[in-house]
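Worked example 2:
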Amino acid sequence: MTLPRTAATFAPPVMEARRWLEGVAFSDEKPLLNVSQAAPVDPPPVALRQHIADTALNVAEAHLYGPVLGLPELRAEVASQWSAAYGGEISPAQVAITSGCNQAFCTAISALADQGDEVILPTPWYFNHKMWLDMMGLTSVALSTNAALLPDPDVAEALITPRTRAIVLVTPNNPGGVEYPADLVAAFYALAKRHGIKLIIDETYRDFDSRPDAPHTLFGDPDWSKTLIQLYSFSKAYRLTGHRVGAMVADTSLLAGGEKFLDTVTICPNQLGQHAAFWGMRNLGQWLAGERAEILDRRAAITANMPRLTPQGWRLMGVGAYFAYLEHPFEMPSDKLAPALVRDHHILCLPGTMFMPKTDPAGKKQLRIAFANVDRDGIATLFKRLSQARY
């Protein structure tokens, strides 16, 4: 009997990790430090929640079907703000609103590729990207990164075949945290353009990039839409994870194909979430700047605490946005180590094996820490507990 496509991939990693909590007793003296998921646990700011409530009460059409590609005013706002931020020309017709950034990725791939095609993913990869490619019957071609978790365009070029449809970059990176330099992103863009394939850049964490200027200048190319697809999430910026609002910026012909996918899957994005995202873009710039400053301070706290671990052989491979990616010093593989850390030290994090091909042994030496919901004191506690680990 032929198995369904969903059988071709692994179980959702975050859900799997939560099962490690079963049977473990935590206490007030030693509570669980959950650094497994890259999502804010706090609700949106009060002003935004009030706007959502007002919209729910007073905007009747917010409860009805809306345009498949999203509210026109939100598409226009993204186009306007992105054009200013990246120094390029983006039209509202080149913006689609999706039910989260994951759906933006699924939409892009569905409009681009057919069964048996190939997509290049730098490793460690974002596991939901790999899962969707598996379920689409596509081949994920692993692109190894260097010691700083940066991919090499020359190595990527050697992986391109007639079946290659896209290269995917995530910056700031999930799971590695690293911010890809603008010249590196430009080199990948030139590579994709030269070979007539797409460069998909997932910028879910762009609001927490440490650089004051635009992270790349690709939208400055008048022909950007022939090569570039950019993905974004409103969830992290405005704490709208439960409302599922993302965006895709791409050529209008690709969005026409994507519209077929979106109409079949969700018909339209969440209306209340879209109204919230639009209001947030218009009114929460100063608040978001404060959120960014807090995340950058926690990033600094990760770096400041690393000397507690380096004498034992730990190594900080990457840090940025919501993530720190660590190499551990133990013989125990990370898929065994991560559950042990829950049991022995009350730390829930994800093993590198969840972000790497099974054939790549490097994942067994790696752990991902998602620190968006752990303040400076919590980070200090995390590193104290890690320093006590012996396996």
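The chain has a mean pLDDT of 96. The CA atoms of residues 177 and 319 lie 4 Å apart.
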